Amino acid sequence: MKRFEIAKTYMTCSACDHNCIFSHKILYRTKKMVIIKVHGENVRRKIEVYNDSETIYPYGKYSMAPILTA
To answer: Domain-by-domain residue ranges, the chain?
Structure first.
């Protein structure tokens, strides 16, 4: 399984505009969650598994939310 690594930056593009790129650095992780910086604040996000890769929702779960995949 692909896992998030500390100090590595992950990027994804917006579902609406592929020129809009979201990038987040993994600051800390445990088995079930990661801490990333969102809008200048450190936030905790739950790790989910999809297609044998860890995924997180950096801005929370909502329609067309960006998803970071390890």
So the answer is: 9-69
